[in-house]
UniProtKB/TrEMBL annotation:
Gene name as annotated: ENKUR
InterPro entries assigned: Enkurin_dom (IPR027012), Enkurin_domain-protein (IPR052102)
Lineage, broadest ranks: Eukaryota, Metazoa, Chordata, Craniata, Vertebrata
Protein's UniProt keywords contain Cytoplasm: yes
Pfam family, one: Enkurin
Protein name per the record: Enkurin
Boundaries of every Enkurin domain copy: 162-254
Gene Ontology cellular component list: acrosomal vesicle; axonemal microtubule
One annotated GO molecular function: calmodulin binding
Compartment annotation: Cell projection, Cilium; Cytoplasm, Cytoskeleton
Keywords per UniProt: Cell projection, Cytoplasm, Cytoskeleton
Amino acid sequence: MTQVCAQENLYNLLPRLEEKAVRPPRYISTFRSSVKYEAQKNKAPWKTIGPEKVEVPSPKNFLLKGSREPKLLQRQKDHGSKKISTLPPVPQKTDHPIIGVQVKKNFIRTNAVDAVMGKPKTYQPVCVDRRLGDKYLLETSGLVPKFIKKKDYGITPKYIIKRNEEVKKAQEDYNAYFKEALREKTMEWISDEERENVLQDLKKAWEETHHEFQCLSLEIDTLPKRMHKERLESHLKQLEHDIKLIENPHCIYIPKK
């Protein structure tokens, strides 16, 4: 009944003027004229199923037999030049072979000296990773540790050194600040007993809030229920953050009362 009464209003009995919706102006592209011109330009010559002006072939230029076959260049015969042969000439009937010529070179000794003093043949290293004997180049297989031959191998990168220096400097500034604050008697650190008491109180508050959150109704259909749920969720997140901060082994300083 309260909901029905709340909708009744004297202003609803007054006649109202009908407000006509004003339609926005239609969108017209700035490139409409150029697009229309290009479409008409490319479309008009082909309205008669083909180009507008095409040269009609002459009936005298009919297709001949073999006209589409590739034509090879004819080899020109050179009657003035003679063919030069690379073969040695045929011995004549009157030629006699040379007999009695002996060579004093010791081929056995020469071959032995060449084998001892010569450089051994270099083979490209390969690796076999299958029982069928498939070979792969060892250099490109990734098994060769090429990275250890770099100039900067084993050296700490510059960005890591810079980051470590920044962290070290920040820690030194932090320690100096708290030492100065302790020296001026403005800050004090929490003892282990006080830390344990605060931690127990936070955990107890978290359990109570979590129990209250579990008791919420399954159907959240009103604004107050939704706001209450969001408030409990934010409170639980804040308690979890505080518990994690208190459990941190670092010293906690608070302003001195």
